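Appendix B, record 7
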Amino acid sequence: MFVPGLAVYAATQRFLDGFTEALRLELLGTGVVVTQVAPGPVDTGGDEAAQTPEGPWSAWLRIPVARCASEALAGFERAEPLVYPGRAHRWMMRLAALLPRRTKRAVWLPTARRLRYGTARLGPAHPDAAPGLLLAGGPGNVRDEAS
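Structure tokens (predicted):
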């Protein structure tokens, strides 16, 4: 998943995906189990210490540390390649995998605009863009608050 403002995090996740899948295949048949654990929000206390803002979905997706650990270990014991601890997070990740990249971009576009221009309001799409594509644009593409 790619999230504006978290480019390094997204790149690290892509690396981990490729690394664990390759390692899993390299070790196939050796008795060594490789399981990638990809939790959503977990109650670690780290968010408060890092002063991370709560997202609109955070409370709904958040799970206790003990639950995250027990689901991760259960997946490891079943030799699952990928474990998403937390029922809500697991379903969101399964659904996200089915979405086209274009839809994912549209979902994260307001966040990108808010980070870059301080507003999530969308201006009109560029005339040369694909039909229905919403572009971040620049400050000149943001509608005036009075209009």
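Remarks on this record: Residues 130-147 have pLDDT under 50 and may be disordered. Residues 7-26 form the longest helix (20 residues).
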